[in-house]
TrEMBL record:
Boundaries of every UPF0033 domain copy: 3-67
PANTHER family the UniProt entry points to: SULFUR CARRIER PROTEIN YEDF-RELATED
A Pfam short name: TusA
Naturally occurring in which organism (per UniProt): Citrifermentans bremense
NCBIfam families: selenium_YedF
Name listed for the protein in its UniProt record: UPF0033 domain-containing protein
Family the entry assigns: Belongs to the sulfur carrier protein TusA family.
InterPro entries: DsrEFH-like, Se_metab_YedF, TusA-like, TusA-like_sf
Length: 195
């Protein structure tokens, strides 16, 4: 069994390292990783590709034993050649447009609430930079984001960004993700809407 230690690595290196190891591994892969975002991101990544994960708490973090053949999307020879059809929205600020901050915040709030009235919704909304403030406690759009989540929209915030703004413990809507997942989703999307 191949082993990999990704403890102490900054996002998105744990996911990238596991991806590379899965591309070259045959059989089981044992991964040592930190709790929190690395654990969540790696687990979501491998399970999303059809692998099974057995978790074990160890001193200093967690150990994953990853088994199964996966869906093939992690294999180099099965790299996607066409877009998946997903619509991805990337929100990089808690404001919409340039100009007065108060107006920009009002416009962003109205935009997100207006999404609830659209007949076609994005498949995923990624929040980066100050955009993560929209998914944290105190935001005026939490209810709208929760409703979007209930309608099948994946609402995900960048873990590094949440850490930077000291909002990780205050995330109120959706989940935490990493730059690898954001980049991969954008590159495989049918369309990307950037705000």
């Amino acid at each position: 069994m191949k082993s990999l230690d990704v403890r102490g690595m900054a996002c998105p290196l744990p996911v990238v390292s596991v991806k590379r190891a899965l591309e070259s591994a045959e059989g089981e892969l044992r991964v040592l990783l930190d709790d929190g975002a690395p654990r969540e991101n790696v687990k979501r990544f491998v399970q999303g590709r059809g692998y099974q994960v057995q978790e074990e708490q160890i001193e200093g973090g967690f150990a994953f034993t990853i088994t199964g053949a996966g869906s093939g999307s992690a294999k180099r020879e099965a790299a996607p050649t066409e877009r998946s059809g997903a619509t991805v929205m990337l929100i990089g600020s808690d404001r919409l447009g340039d100009g007065a901050e108060e107006l920009g915040r009002l416009l962003m709030k109205n935009f997100i609430i207006t999404l609830l009235d659209m007949s076609e919704l994005p498949d995923r909304i990624f929040f980066v930079n100050s955009g993560v403030l929209l998914a944290a406690q105190g935001s005026e759009v939490i209810e709208a984001l929760e409703e979007l989540g209930n309608r099948g929209v994946e609402v995900l915030s960048c873990g590094i960004c949440l850490d930077f703004y000291k909002k990780k413990e205050l995330l109120a809507a959706g989940g935490v993700t990493n730059m690898f997942t954001i980049a991969e989703s954008m590159l495989q999307a049918r369309s990307v809407v950037r705000l």
